[in-house]
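My current task is to audit a protein record that another person submitted. What it holds is a sequence and that sequence's fold in C-alpha cell form. Thanks in advance; the entry in question is below.
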Amino acid sequence: MGPASDGPHGPERRRLLRRHATVKVSVERLDQLGRLVGKAATAHLRVGRLLDERLGVEAGSVPEFHDLSHLLGELQEKTMQACMVPFATIVEPCGAPPGTLRGCSARRSPEVRGEDTELDRRVLEQLNDPLLHLVRNAVDHGIEPPAAARSAGKPPPVACGCMPCSSARTRS
C-alpha cells in the first residue's frame, strides 16, 4: 500500500471525512426533533413531580434523575444550536438585496458586524422584513446622491463613517 492509502484510516480517508463533516437536515426534521426534546423535558418534569409528591423523594437527590436532568439539558442545548443560523443569512447588507443600497456608497459605506452571531432560524425569519424595511427606508429617505444635494443647495456631507448593522448574542 502506498502512503496515500494507509488502510481504512489513512490520510486520504481522513481528508474525505473532513470534507463531508456536515450533513443537510430538513427544517421539518429539526422542528420535529425540537418538539420531541420539548416533550421529553415535559415528561422529565412530571417524573420529578411524581418522585416528590407520591414517593416523598427530592428528585434532585436521586443520582439517576440528576444525570437524566443533565443529559436532557445538554440535549436541549444541542438541539437549539442545531436550529441556529448565522445573522449573515439575512444581511446582504442588513437583508438588502443587490441594488437596494445603490447610489449610497458615495456617502456611506454599508457595514455589517456580528454576521457570524447565531440566532434561532425562526427569530431571523421574523427579523428579515422589518430590517429590510429599515434599511430601504434609510436609503430612500436618508441618503441622497451628492450631486442632488448640491443642486438643492444643501451643504456637503460630513464624514459619516458607516451605516452599522450589528448583532451579538449574550447568555442570560
